[in-house]
Write a structure and sequence with these properties.
Blueprint lengths: L1 E6 L6 E6 L6 H8 L1 H4 L10 E3 L2 E3 L10 E4 L17
Parallel strand pairs: 1-5
Antiparallel strand pairs: 1-2, 3-4, 3-5
């Protein structure tokens, strides 16, 4: 069955399609797509994944046409004058 794997990386998201066997998991599709070779910074132990915008686990089974999404970690960098104190 055909599935897509997408990772939103600047300047343009990567979208790869691959063929996986019926009953394949999210982790298997990510591996099969080859995306981890292009984006070695991806850490599936820390980053969340989803299918069509809904969080799923790596061992979730896929269906024909699913789009696996790997979400970037969101971090906030504070400026020196941007603190949480309201003095």
């Amino acid at each position: 069955m055909k599935v897509g794997v997408v990772y939103a990386v600047a300047p343009q998201p990567l979208l790869l399609t691959c063929q996986v066997e019926e009953g394949s998991t999210v982790a298997q599709a990510i591996e099969r797509s080859g995306l981890l070779r292009y984006c070695p910074e991806i850490d599936l132990k820390k980053q969340k994944v989803g299918v069509f915008g809904k969080f799923v686990k790596l061992d979730s089974c896929l269906k024909e046409g699913d789009r696996v999404e790997i979400y970037q970690r969101i971090t906030r960098v504070l400026d020196e004058d941007d603190d949480d104190d309201d003095d």
